[in-house]
Write a structure and sequence with these properties.
Number of strands: 23
Structural class: alpha/beta
Mean pLDDT: 96
CATH superfamily of the largest domain: Aldehyde Dehydrogenase, Chain A, domain 1
Largest sheet: 7 strands, mixed
Shape: globular
Oligomer: single chain
Distance between the termini: 77 Å
Length: about 500
Amino acid sequence: MSTGSDPHTVEVAGVPVDTRHWIDGARVESGETFAVESPIDGAHLAEVSSAGADEVDAAVDAARRAFPAWAELGPEGRGEYLDRLARAIREHNDELAAVETTDNGSLLIGNRKNVMARGALNISHFADLARNLPTEVIEGSVRNEVVYQPSGVAALITPWNAPFMLSTWKVGPALAAGSTVVLKPPEWAPLTCSLLADLSAEAGLPPGVLNVVQGTGSRAGQPLVDHPDLARISFTGSTDTARVIGRSAARSLTPVSFELGGKSPFIVCDDADLDSAARTIAHQFINAGQVCLAGTRILVHRSVADDLLGRVTAAVDHLPVGDPRDLATRIGPLITRRQFDRVSGFVDRAREQGARPLIGGGPHPAGELYYSPTILTDVDQSWEIVQREVFGPVLVWQTWESDTEAVELANDTHYGLAAMIYTSDPDRADRLARRVVAGTVWVNCFFVRDLDAPFGGARDSGIGREGGRWSFDFYADVKNIATRRDDQERST
């Protein structure tokens, strides 16, 4: 549905959204399109331009040509643009929230209050961090000065579960470090990334500094990661897709940063605050469970398992499932029929193997793509429901008796993205946290992190770390300038 006389602009939740790419500071149309539908009710939202190799080449070329001038601005000059971009995001907070909710089914209340604000913070924080990066000097046989030098064109590929926020998480440090960007949004939820392009123009970013190329993985994503002129590739998504990208990047020796899936353990000890643990377990169902960091394997000490289950059930009962535009809703729909079938397939196969639902276990009557919050028990460690990421509102419930057994269960998957530990004993928390394989361990909390802290996963959950200085270690070329000292010159 187009608005007015412009066939390329659609109205989504009352907000005009351009359906074309953003390349070299201008909108660019493709001959092919793909359909975008709302998971809330299946409504057709837009026919979006679908890029191929030609559009990808144009975007990379624009970013390559814009790079020297952008790099030359330095942290202060770049920061002025990024400050304006962050301000524009804040000014359009509610519009961005409404479009994102309509596009991917995430909660409107969360998008309004937290998610879009975090997007603005991602931009402004890294701009400030780049301005204030300390000069590191290592005095040894020579004076070593460590500097961060802009690297070139960064390809940024983002997922559909939080497309705007996760795009800014990459765009912010990449631009602050002096890279120029080709952003590929998710084909299932691309619309707020198109709005990000508009906001970059509103902020006055020079043409080519930020480019947005829409399309599927095969038509747009593959030629992008195959491109020989990239300096960096940052990808958030599935482990299987990362393997494909890794093979492409290897041909050009392009450095990669991968934030991938998880099957994170949530360890509850016998000395834990069970009310707090129960509330946080219920919180694992946020965004209909479409959160890579979620603690989807509940590992609870056998002595408190029954008590905790009662508290968890009561907490989940207070999470209404329904239309995410309703500010009272706490669990919305899955993103597509394909994702719904994937989630229900995991549960159905587990039940056929003998798994028993403690709560839920099937579709929810709220609508076609809504699935009931589900906890399964009587599972075997080798089953796929324990070993593979479901990416839906599905948890498994297992018990243990010794801390050693808890750690063994926690580490018995191929993943290592996150872990949660609930205990009232600080020493016990420290021992468990150090033994669990995970990029992030939350002790008596969940989903809180300072932007200066490193973020990433171990094993099949990722490569590298981003956040704080670690982002600049990736998006910039770290250079050492080694200078002979005066006393060495006098001694020669």
